[in-house]
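#struct-help
A.M.: can someone run this one for me? Single chain, 224 residues.
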Amino acid sequence: MASPPLLAITDLRKTVPTDRLLFEDVSLQLERGELVAIMGESGVGKSTLLNIVAGLERADSGTVTLDGTDLALLDEDGRAALRRRQIGFVFQAFHILPHLTLGQNVALPLALLRTSPAEASARARDLLTSVGLPGRSDDYPNQLSGGELQRVAIARAIAHRPTLILADEPTGNLDPETAVRVLGLLIAQMRDAKAGAVLVTHSEVAAASADRILRLTSTGLVPA
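D.P.: on it. Structure tokens below:
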């Protein structure tokens, strides 16, 4: 008997506050170890779709099931707990905390899961080295460029070895060479953990790394 998909999105519909339809009939099944890239025109709702999958926003109708759990059946605390355990999110705006060092930022998901400080710090240092920021663990975000902050955001997203990685334009602030290297790290971590990933991007180069490329339209996801 085939195992159920890691992520099952079924018939999502979402309108914006003015009652304008953003998208409808959005369905997707994501297997463990699979990377799906989602492309589409600006304003079609790609970031909103990721937020719904993460339980940060609610759809008007439809379901999102992650590893057998229907997000609609969880209250706010339950969704937050699921995100801490199972989801790594690379936000388009980084969301790096300015008052924490880079090492503390990367280790934050581990701290929330009560990982020992020594283990969390070691993991953060290793990941910062992997994304091309060796020896920068004690630096602060204001000492970094936008591209470097994006690398920190990616390191933080995979620190706790999540089941599902959601990445919103993760290479948007990186030069092509760094983008390929950092995306390769993200994919390697995903495969190693038998996780899955949904990547929203405008970059044809980034999308080319995916197992499938889909385009989000107002009437659903279609092959790109």
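A.M.: thanks! The longest strand covers residues 21-30.
D.P.: also worth noting: The mean pLDDT is 92.
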